Amino acid sequence: MWSPAPGERVAVTGLGLGTVVKATPRGAIVELDVPYSTRAEFNTANISLIEGAAGSAGLQAARTGAAASQNSPQGNGPPVAAGSAGAGATQSNYPLLSKAAPSASGHLARIGQLIGARPKPPGSGGVQVPSLEPGPGASATSGGTPPAAAPSPMPAPPLSDPGFEARCSLEALRFGLVPHRHIEQFTLGYEQLSKWINSSFPVLEPRVHKVIGAYGTGKSHTMSAIRTLAKREGYMVAHVEVNGEGMTLSDPAKLIHAIYSTLHSQEEETEYPLVGLLEKVIQNSTSSYLPLSGLRAVDAHLGVVSMLQHAGTLDIWTEQLEAVFSGSDEVSATDLDRALRKQTRASVQVFPAVPRYLLDRPNGLVESLLGTAWLAKAAGYKGLIITIDEFETENKHLTKAQKQKLMLTLRAIECYVSGQRNLPKVPLALYFGTVGDSMDEGDVYLNDLVEASGGSALELRFFQKEERLELANRIYRFYQEAYQLQRPYDPNVADRVHTLLDGRGYVESELLRQFIKWYMAFLDVLYGPPKEMA
């Protein structure tokens, strides 16, 4: 029996030609030859290898799939509507989940009906939809457009390489990055810190917390520890660093897209996290109907995803749906809404992550975040954790008009977390990292947010010499593991680094980063790669 392999040219029933990107347990992920190279997973029964005579037959099957769908009884049936579950069914906002879904053959038969329009020519605007047939001049081997080369798989470390994980963390330290793989081992005072973090996670209601510390006290490291522990506890997490210029709370549209671009959980990181969340909510529903969040956009998007699932065409629309849900400017909600209605002939609606009108955006940001937290909870996670670092930069770079927009955003958050808005209470926590400037209006307002939500503040301090020496000992143990170094730890090396730093006159905020940098350099010179491993 034929099994798909990366790089093979295949015909997909009803959708034309494509290239296998990756084999899966059910079949393969195929990049279709459509104007914007859509990738989707198909069952083995629905794809056929193009090779000689078999290729011609596969191409013919792909070309006739759409026609077959138009002539099938199911293809001529009424279009699926977001507010109907079929004749004789109890009326609901969404299709019934507990009823028997259309069969696989029914899904395939309706694909031609649902996405059968020709794509818009380049430059015509709007959302392009997949073509069912190859372009002019296509053949069984060409597919109309040159096939995209299958991406090379990421090289995996050898199974016999015990030092790989340790080297990854050491490389992070060399570049001044947080060693996420071993956050516990490289966090001084981890036990005490983890107690505060675990007690700060939301259970039923939203919370706002504040991590205060001067430069060099480890705010970014602490933010990473918060996300790491949150994932282990079953939360979804996201993060953003504001800078008062290109990324700021005064611009909710850009901010929300940056946050959703990092959304993930412990068990998976996917390119389409929001669509995936909606799918999980539908799958995990214990009721005959989809649960209602009370938020118009969330409920509408649940209906859209459910409808496309039942029609068997969700994979075709996933990329565009994710773009709109996450606030990307690549696809507008208006264009996608129009395309979906045209192709599905159903009364559907999609909403942008935040509204178009500037004054509506602060509240739109809040509603989007709490909607995503609600989805996370309904999908089986404990909630949503978001870290917002470098908040102090907002005061340095924002204009007067931007600061007013910033305060509107903070006010919208306060109104929600304090219960002034009639919105669902969800397990959502925002952690702001800041230096704690008592002269900054925005920083002072954070205190009100923390108090209004019942949150707390964590104040960081500079590390002392004894603590840096302890960190050196931990780094060296990883160095031994990474490079199979047998030499025992020598505390004199760390003392020599301190002597060097004292002579260079570094200020306290620079000492920790400089100590790690120079200590790593000393180890490389004395013991390090490639000398010890040669």
From TrEMBL:
Organism this protein belongs to: Paenibacillus sediminis
Bias (Low complexity): 134-147
InterPro entries linked to this entry: BrxD (IPR021228), P-loop_NTPase (IPR027417)
Domain of life per record: Bacteria
SUPFAM superfamilies xrefs: P-loop containing nucleoside triphosphate hydrolases (SSF52540)
Pro residues: compositionally biased ranges: 148-160
Protein name (Swiss-Prot/TrEMBL): ATP-binding protein
Gene3D superfamilies for this protein: P-loop containing nucleotide triphosphate hydrolases
Region Disordered: start-end pairs: 64-88, 115-162
